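Re: [help] complex structure
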Amino acid sequence: MIDIAPVLLDNDDFRLRRAWHPVARSADVGDRTYEVRLLGVPLSVMRTGRTGEPWRGHGQDADDAGQVELAAGNAYAVAERYGLIWVALEQPIAPIPDFPEWHDPTYHSEVLTRSTRVAAGIVIDNFLDVTHFSYLHRQSFGRARPVTDDGYRIIARGDFVQLEHDTVLQEGRRNADGGFGERRIATYTYWPPFICHLQMMFPGDGALAAATIVCQPESSDSTRVYVVVLIPRTDEGLDEQVEFSRRVLDEDLIIVSRMPDPRLCLTIRAEFHTRADRASVEMRRTLADFLDECGLAQSAQSLPEVVA
Ligand SMILES: [Fe+2]
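Output below.
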């Protein structure tokens, strides 16, 4: 048997400086300094510019308007998007991805946040795991039967991973057709390093919802997790949807916080993966490639200039 030394990803890995990360909710940042940490680096964020205008709400991004600036720190760039303030400590190798519901005026949204000791990679990996519904979210999702790879389809394109998952939740609840259960068609799109956008469609009543999970790797022993909850404005249950998402996230964080090692293992062959775990495998491949690219960009930058 070959002994494979696992590669473990720490929250303060230097290569992550080449990526965009959230550092605060838009609503948290005003014209006074707001202290945050990113990859072990302390930063002060505040709104500068003429007005110091507070965040204006769903669909409003202020990164072009010069309303958000870092008051301190050596950040390369700052942006405001999706109700979050984003920072890159060095020139990012990829843009912040697009979440279509954010730009859709028929939607409204709210951001919830939580903290955990486990690494950002573990939180995202757990979010992509649909097989734990039956034992981790039995109460909240109403699913007791094991979730297999039925209705499970993966698309891996190199720079992102998409998982489509068609399943039944709330098994004990009567549906509009007189049967039991609520069918949910979910599309999870993962972008490295720590972003996953979940789009949900419930064919029973045509309801739509989306939730984006984004992690702020604060330091080696701390991650701040943000969930942007988005639903159509015609659905007045935004508060309930946020409460539901918070409950589900708490169920996840209780389990992951028990992990003895808080880091994500990037070595696929060092762990046991099943067929229903393909999203995790592809996520690790995509993340490892992304980190390699960040590392290459950093070493290219540090090379001395060739004098002709
Ligand atoms: Fe979960």
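The first strand starts at residue 8 and ends at 9.
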